[in-house]
UniProtKB/TrEMBL annotation:
Top-level division of the source organism's lineage: Bacteria
Name by which UniProt lists this protein: Putative HTH-type DNA-binding domain-containing acetyltransferase
Coiled coil: none
Family matches, as Gene3D superfamilies: 3.40.630.30
InterPro entries: Acyl_CoA_acyltransferase, GNAT_dom, Mito_N-acetyltransferase
The entry's keywords: DNA-binding, Transferase
PANTHER family linked to this entry: ACETYLTRANSFERASE, GNAT FAMILY, N-ACETYLTRANSFERASE ACA1
GO molecular function terms noted in the UniProt entry: acyltransferase activity, transferring groups other than amino-acyl groups; DNA binding
Domain (N-acetyltransferase) ranges: 1-160
Alphabetized Pfam families for the sequence: Acetyltransf_1
């Protein structure tokens, strides 16, 4: 697996997975019917950097990294990760998170914060905890899950 900066061709290939993830309304607080252009802008252009994990020409997953806040809070970064359905359970999310932490350090960030990890996404919560992230807050009923209704979200944090 190679983790490389994303290009528009990569995102175009990843778009069906991205769209399926947001339409499921189980992990991301994104408008489930956003357009390709809105998604590309949000995922690839707004963040400071964006990467894809590839095996040959197959996109396994992607992540973005950006400052979590401005001014006095700009030393903490924020990331989002998505893994293709056919690549889940194969270490892609771990590799992307480890890569993002290295990238965050290299860009001068001192910590990483996830603002809204859906509590029912136990695979992600468990992985982030194994990678050293702590749940530092719980927001009750902050996410309207596509199948379960209102569920909690976690704020997770790690010093880099």
């Amino acid at each position: 697996m190679n983790i490389v900066p994303i290009c528009e061709k990569d995102f175009h290939q990843f778009w069906p997975e991205f769209e399926a993830i947001i339409q499921a309304q189980e992990t991301y607080a994104y408008e489930p019917h956003m357009t390709y252009l809105e998604a590309y802008t949000l995922w690839c252009e707004v963040p400071q950097v964006c990467f894809v994990a590839k095996e040959g020409e197959t996109i396994l997953g992607s992540y973005f990294l950006k400052a979590n806040g401005m001014g006095p809070s700009s030393h903490i970064c924020n990331c989002g990760y998505m893994v293709s359905s056919n690549a889940r359970g194969k270490g892609v999310a771990r590799a992307l998170c480890e890569h993002s932490q290295e990238m965050g350090r290299s860009l001068g960030y001192t910590a990483m914060q996830f603002n809204a990890v859906v509590s029912t996404n136990t695979v992600a919560v468990t992985l982030w905890q194994k990678l050293g992230f702590a749940i530092v807050g719980t927001i009750p009923n902050a996410y309207k899950h596509g199948k379960l209704g209102y569920v909690n979200t976690y704020v997770m944090h790690k010093v880099l």
